[in-house]
Amino acid sequence: MRPHFVPFGGGEVPETDLESSRIVVLPLPYEANPSYGEGSQDGPYHILDASTQMEAVDEETGQEWTDLKIHTCRPPSISPEPEKAVLEIEAAAKAILDKGKRLLSLGGDHAVTIGTARAAAKAYPGMGILQIDAHMDLRNSWNGSKFNHACVMRRLAGDDKIPSVAVGIRSFSAEERDFARQTGHQVFLAHGIDPKDDEWIDQVVSLLPENVYLTLDLDGLDPSVIPGTGTPEPGGLSYRQALDLIRGLGARRNVVAADINELAVIPHTHVSEYTAARLAQKIFVYCFG
């Protein structure tokens, strides 16, 4: 059952209107033609609901993240037609970014990123993208659409020529492999990341320009951390690896916007949505704070 809409953090976060806010949360309950598991359309509601259970103090920094002037928008109406949905999502993100706010979008399936990242790229020319994901998302078309979740980075890094780095990849087609090789698309495969050495984080960040958009597909983390996602792939990033990457990115680059997507909750357990909410809180602290 879909939870009712609540603002991020619930009663823990002081009410802040859009104009006075620093950070804006944009729920995007959109899903079209999923590849495997379904349910990401309700993901934003579950993340928001889980966020109400978090304490106000970030345990690593001691900062009260609830004081960061966070405003949560009501979910916009989104067309079920993929190409039209992308345009509507881009317009919703643009209205926020044009006000100079830091934007965190909550999907929905990964196709929402086509719209939000395009809006950010127009607001911040020369921007790059850091993609945390199990999949390359470099297919030219999938399930009858070029605006499917499996085509996100083909549209952004391919068509739009946005410099991008993908981390945690461990599942891809021959088409995607060949496209990455031919274009020099930067990919850090999950099996090549040393769990005992964080030098790879420096390498990832060094490949990105000053302004960065962070897209976090929850299947980029290992299913032992987040089992509730549409296509769980074994061998992903640990929670601490993902957190170290987010911290390193925020320390060395200007993160202008971000998204978290592809939550598909599992009944009778809250670990996936709560972890997603905690990752959002960490983005606030390390990238937007």
Q: Would you spell out the secondary-structure blueprint of this structure?
A:
Blueprint (H helix, E strand, L loop, with lengths): L22 E6 L14 H9 L18 E3 L9 H16 L4 E6 L4 H12 L4 E5 L19 H8 L4 E6 L4 H10 L2 E4 L9 H8 L4 E7 L21 H14 L1 E8 L9 H18 L1
Parallel strand pairs: 1-2, 1-3, 3-8, 4-5, 4-7, 5-6, 7-8
Structure, explained:
By secondary structure, the protein is α/β, with parallel strands linked by helices. It has one domain: Arginase, Chain A, CATH 3.40.800.10. Helices cover 33% and strands 16% of the residues. It is built from eight helices and eight strands. The protein has helices spanning 43-51, 82-97, 112-123, 152-159, 174-183, 199-206, 239-252, 271-288; strands spanning 23-28, 70-72, 102-107, 128-132, 164-169, 186-189, 211-217, 254-261. Strands 2-1-3-8-7-4-5-6 form an eight-stranded parallel beta sheet, with helices on both faces. Helix 7 (239-252) packs parallel to helix 8 (271-288). It starts with 22 loop residues before the first strand and ends with a helix. Keywords: Hydrolase, Manganese, Metal-binding. InterPro entries: Agmatinase-rel, Ureohydrolase, Ureohydrolase_dom_sf, Ureohydrolase_Mn_BS. Pfam families: Arginase. Belongs to the arginase family. Agmatinase subfamily. One of its GO terms (biological process) is putrescine biosynthetic process from arginine, via agmatine.
